[in-house]
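Lab notebook page, bench 4
Experiment: in silico fold of construct C2
Operator: M.H.
Input chain length: 354 residues
Purpose: comparison with the prior construct
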Amino acid sequence: MNNDDLSKSLMKSGTVFTPEHIAGLFCELADLKYDDVLFEPCLGTGALLRAGVNRLISMPENEGKDITSQIHAVEKDKNMYDEAIKSELLRDNSNVLYGDFFDVDTSDIKERVKPTVGFINPPYSLGSKANPNLYELNFVERLLDCLISEGKVIAIIPMSCAIGTKKEVSDIKKRILEKHTLDAVMSMPGNLFYPVGVCTCIMIFTAHKKHCVSEKSWFGYWKDDGFVIRKNKGRIDGGSWGKIKDKWVSAYRCRSEKAGFSVLKDVTGTDEWLAEAYMETDYSKLTQRDFEKTVADYLIYQFKTTLYKNMTPAAKSVDDKSDENESNTTTTKKEPDWAYMENYIKSLPFGSMM
């Protein structure tokens, strides 16, 4: 099974893999120090923790030093746990545990392990009134409770958590701010987890420091990481990620405000936690290419919608169930390569055609 197929399969259980460049970004945002103690309660296949370990062992102060005691993690899925500990960085570390994060005593972790930094990419879209523990922000809240005072938690979770229209989610947001501080939220690219379709944001918190509304949170609009989708290759760096990452990290650390990119805002647990709700649009930077991209996006939407409307009821039924039962696709035409078609349409010179 290739990575795309594995990602689709795991998404059904709420699991999506953290892209490697985002794992590296977590380390930059955390501003890791040589003596930091890392804790990841939803290890998955280990991308976030490996990035953190690599950063720690690259520091001069840790040269030749055993940092095993600084690395802690939990993973409840046996297959992913086995995959994670194949890495030399995590193998034979008794602090990387197979188990359920919700069976962990948060007070014990805080007092015994004393984590200073927590990374998390929890299972997505599994929370409900029947299973409130599985809301993404509930994982984040529990991780915050595990850290020492002033520790940092960095999480990547669905945008719906930032909007928080569900009462259950809004209640968790309120609880978090009663004990912890929301430092920043960054809206991430819409196709970051391609081929899985989920809009996400990165949230950064300071643990055990009650949120003060007068201390504004920083919101960034990080929708373009310079990655492009290529046929048979998936989502790859277009060559500008390094410069974009430096720009993002610098803006976050300086907490600078810029129209169309970032804004400082005082928020509560009932507010939306995303840049789109508060930042101003910088109309001076709109270009012909922006217009062309909007037209291209609209044409793609119309094309997909029209194609679906023109399908027979039987074909629609098969198409809707194709992810659950791939054998059904034999009764209809093969799914078009949307990524290839989108890139092609977006490359057309619309401006010169109008």
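Observations: The two ends are 45 Å apart (CA to CA). Residues 318-333 have pLDDT under 50 and may be disordered.
Next step: discuss at group meeting.
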